[in-house]
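Morning - beta-D-glucopyranose inputs below, output right after.
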Amino acid sequence: MTVASPRVASFVVESGPSVGAVAVAQPRLSWTTAVATDNWVQAGAEIELDGQQTARIDAAHSVLQPWPFAPLVPHARHTARVRVTGVDGGVSAWSEPIEIRSSFMADGEWVAEPIGLAFPEKDAQPFRARRAFEVREGLARGVLFATAHGAYEARINGAAVDDQILKPGWTPYRQRLIHETTDVTSLLDAGSNVLAADVAGGWYTQGFFLPHPRYGAQPAVALQLRLEYTDGSIDTIASDASWKVTGDSPLVRSSIYVGEHWDARLDTPGWDRPGFDDAAWQAVRFMEPMTTPSARTSPAVRAIEELPVDKVLTSASGAQLLDFGQNLVGWVRLRLRGAAGTIVTVRHAEVLEDGELGLRPLRGATSTETYVLAGDGVEISQPKFTFHGFRFAQITGLDSAIDPADVTAVVIHSDMRRTGWFESSHPLLDRLHENVVWGMRGNFLYLPTDCPQRDERMGWTGDIQVFAPTASFLYDSNGFLSSWLHDLALEQTELDGMVPIMVPIAAGDAKRGVAAWGDAATVVPTVLHDRFGDTGVLRTQFASMRDWTDFAANLASDNGLWDTGFQYGDWLDPNAPPEDPYLAITDKGMVATAYLIRSADLTTQAAALLGESTDAQRFAALAERTRNAFLAAYIAPSGAMLSETQTAYALALAFDIARDDALRARLAQRLADIVAANDYRIGTGFVGTPIIAEALANNGHLDVAARLLLQTAGPSWLHPVTMGATTIWERWDSMLDDGTINPGEMTSFNHYALGAVADWMHRSVAGLAPARPGYERVLIEPRPIAGLDHARARLDSPYGPVSVGWRRDGERIVVEATIAPNTRAEVRLPGRTESFDVGSGNHAWICAPPVETTN
Ligand code: BGC
């Protein structure tokens, strides 16, 4: 046997907002290997810390491995590298060293006071804060820790300390507040320096559905700069009574929903530098105490992409409209020149209606930017602490129409690593997939939201419950979603196990235990374990999973069905009238009971995996009891269900409620018949949409699933694409065929939930699925469908690049796959009943029964 020459292709430490910034004392480590030889398996690995200590792992493990050294201490800096050995004995070179920096503080170290305006003149008043200080000779390092009740931008000597937006994001502030940790050494000089901040209300002062802000009326900021000197001494500059603040800032008004008003005439250049005269500034007020902040574990929000104006249009009333060609989330940046006092207004809309901006769907979110020119040459305008969901913008107030070259759309979102791609021979299907990606980009902004434009933008639990599998393919969303699950568990502990319908809780009536929404508590951790190989998230979320399932079980009637109480049901199925989305046609008790079974199953699995055997038995019994109750109440032996709907049958099949083969066949046939009778158009809402294609395809009706997927008449996934959609719509008919906006009160054009079918496209149409957590074992099971000539999915999996695709070659199908080193795949080819196993490397098979193998 020849010995392979492996190479470490990536080595990463579990980090927060930037590479190497580690928020926990025992971060996990992951690495991938590249090797030219097939069937490569790791025998072990060595991890070296600071060139001094080495830890050995004598196993194939390479994903999220426990920290093998003494726990990190606050402010520590290390370098680490790894090398791997194959079972054939071949040893790699050491990887490039990676940096590991503790981004957390010591217990009791946080001393910064929350400061704000002593005499605010209006609600949610933005303000500026500053403090001059001296840096002694011999500075080794400066690290800034900062947070806000609101949103802040920290500045040192005239420059923003980082490129992160809307820090510190939105968490249930009273239970969990995040601080950023920023190395600011390069911004500091020996001598006079200034630490300053621009502060606004952000989510903290936002009113949401309430007439008053949920958290507080005025923002506050807290900053703590740690100066480490080469002689070992430390100076701390923290927000306290020595700071000065002013409400006379050019940021006159700032609101997530309303937008911002910036008056450049009020700017006072130099306010964030040494030498500025702050005599007119106020003394600070100490604001509501903050819970001690913890280091960010999720990615930062950054400006990720810029789009130029795609088209200049003229509105029905003769105004200039700018079309960016893509519905996106972020803001418009303008280059302006004009007389002092000129007020430039930017309005945003996702769609046009009657040739004008379609503003009605924004409801209470006016999403308007105003900028008052200072009149001193070229001025750049863009908001700081808000964002908008839009494709079109209208800019008014200048003497003449703006030059589109002076207008740029800036796309912002949580800066996750893109990991998954899909492409096929079908341009509309590819555009659908692209729309799903944009839907995720628009709604992963510190928290997973329902929509990014109207007066919601909230962490609705049901939406991410259905979208998490898709999200976990498209981007490395483990850190992002794990952080949000932490918040979910915090909100839940105060509700006796109930999971609210949104996290953070943003509305007075959010404390409701609703099926398919609260089940985010069990489904999302399961997805993260499955897709990222993260057993830790199951461990940390297990109490949350257990408590939710117990809570839901307690809501069940004596007959075992969860058939009472408030439910959203199969929210927004196409049969519900525009004005009443609650009128979904599938029985709500059936939806709720199916989800109780699902949560009981997932909690059973997690308990078994974690060795919680008493819980495993208890939840297995609950699942069985509830399954039997469902079968008895909702499915006749003939296979007829109480609700003759697509969602009802999809649930019985996809949630494995009916387990008898003959019954499953009858259910599947009826489902296929219902779809056919509906002319192969979709009839599902949030609950049925993610599972219907799979329910059909896995039970003998792939052809029907394919016709549903490729249907272009509405309602269908592709109908909005034929109408020019560039994101996933909230409703199948957010825009009606006549080009008018759906009259319903809720009509967003950027809701990812109905895009959850993309997960099936990855796993089945292309055929790339996890067979074991983290893709340690891949399931290659492509399902060539009529209407496609080829399809392919590609994933940067935790073990490295994987791809699976197929193409037609005459009557034959060629399947090609690449399997990452240190993993194996189970292969199920079209037209062949038995599966087989392959190791890492490139593979191709020609399938036309009988199947031939080319390598
Ligand atoms: C949101 C949803 C959410 C729903 C609850 C809507 O207003 O936009 O996506 O899940 O309410 O039913």
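Note: The CA atoms of residues 250 and 266 lie 5 Å apart.

O.
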